[in-house]
Amino acid sequence: MTDLRFDFIDPRHPLYEGELELRFRVLREPLGHAREDVKFPFESESLHLVTHAGGVVQGCVLFNPEDAHSGRLFQMAVLPSLQGKGLGAKLVRALEDELRKRGFRHVHLHARAPVVPFYERLGYAVYDEPFVEVGIPHRHMQRDL
After folding, report:
1. Which of 22, 39, 52, 80 sits at 20 to 30 Å (Cα–Cα) from 31?
2. Is 26:114 a contact under the CB 8 Å cutoff?
């Protein structure tokens, strides 16, 4: 994990296809969703942070601005072989640092129920009632930057 690079990319970047593949394999395929279900209508307006080594995307997290000061973190994914080693936390922290530089002050997200503790360790708090998204239980979470 020492040779990993962190870069902000967009859908025209050569690593974007690798990002989509990672998102599909980690977030959609295990739920039985189709490959085309991985893209969002607001991909081009979102920030895409990827970590990669040797041209292989190993983790990603996206942020969709909703106004000048807030937006939604989404599509957080790390290769299964690297999960639990701190890479996800590094991705979120790097994204938050960039968001602060850009003037964002608030982030919210939809966390799958099993990863709520991960986000709580990063300072996110649960709010509102549980809900189902993509067929599985989720919680609303938020954090001021």
Report:
1. 52
2. no
3-state secondary structure of 52: strand
Phi-psi region of 96 (alpha: psi -120 to 50; beta: other; left: phi over 0): alpha
CB 84 within 8 A of CB 77: no
pLDDT, one tens digit per residue, over 74-85 is: 999 999 999 999
Tokens of 61: 């997290």
Q: What is the pLDDT of residues 77-106, one digit of tens each?
A: 999 999 999 999 999 999 999 999 999 999
**In contact, 8 and 47? CB cutoff 8 Å:** yes
| CA atoms of 14 and 115, how far apart (whole Å) | 29
| Helix ranges, 24-143 (H) | 87-101, 116-121
| Residues 6 or more apart whose Cβ sits within 8 Å of residue 4 | 51, 52, 53, 58, 87
- The candidate with the shortest Cα–Cα distance to 78, out of 89, 67, 65, is 89
pTM tops 0.70, yes or no:
yes
